[in-house]
Amino acid sequence: MKKLSIGEIVSRAWDLAVKHWPIFVLFSFVTSLIGGLGVNLDPATYAQIFSTSDSTAQAELLSEALQVNYPLAIFGALLSIYLGFVVINLYVNTHNTGRPYASLSGVFKVDLNQLAIYFCVSLVYGLIVGLGVVLCILPGIFFAVRLWYAPLLAATQGASFGEAFSRSWEMTKGHFWKLFLLGLTMVGIVILGICACFVGVFFAEVVVEFMLVVSFFMLKPEEPAPAADFSTETSDYLEVK
Asked: In the chain, how many domains are there?
């Protein structure tokens, strides 16, 4: 059984984040803006929620406070999924080759079939975890950990819908508690990022994503890896020294 060292994961993720943070912070910021497209919150109505303890009244006030432009919101959600697919591939490329991309022109080119699989896997993963949390919390945590790598497998390893879940289940077998502690560590890092004038949450997100990728490759079964070949493309990525 492969061993996981949380200290090593954090250390390697931190080094990668410090070296490559500008592009990933930029993507994180842009994605957060796009994710809120079409959704507005009326501050005055929202503030009234805290003036009452009636749960029914709070739900009605929240419904009034939220103003949703559904076509724009759906567009924003789809664009966020597309960017999520792009970014997770950049994280994996950085881990494997030392840089997010070989050529900027190829960053946004994606396999539409794999993008569709990634969307379905992410949606089902969210539904499974959400249902587990609603039912009893503990099942949600269990499935969140055991199926943790399914979206990453779909986005970066060419896994089919079923393979993404089955391979994640197999990879995390025997590692539940270590991965659970790793998840708590990620939450702690994000909280520290929020405390750092909130802006730090974007850098914290980069560290957390690298932690996910580093832990994934620690558990991933050994496979012959083809050598990176950038000879046919011009590298225009600049690292942070």
From this structure: 1
Tokens of 27: 């993507």
Q: Is the dihedral of CA 204, 32, 116, 139 positive or negative?
A: positive
**Between 97 and 47, the higher pLDDT residue:** 97
CA distance linking residue 66 with residue 42, whole number of Å: 7
Q: Provide the token pair at 14.
A: 């931190």
Beta-carbon count within 10 A of 75 CB: 14
Whole domain around residue 30: which residue ranges? Answer: 6-50+57-100+108-219
Distance of alpha carbon 180 from its chain centroid, rounded? 16
Short-list 228, 220, 70, CA closest to 157: 220
Q: 237 lies in a domain?
A: no
Q: What is the mean pLDDT of the chain?
A: 87
> For the segment 95-114, what is each residue's pLDDT rounded down to a tens digit?
999 999 988 788 899 999 99
- Residues forming beta bridges with residue 41, ordered by sequence position: 66
Q: Judging by beta carbons within 10 Å of its beta carbon (0-12, 13-18, 19+), is residue 30 exposed, middle or buried?
A: middle
Centre a 10 Å sphere on the Cβ of residue 114 and count the other Cβ atoms it contains. Answer: 18
For residue 147, tell me if it sits in a domain.
yes
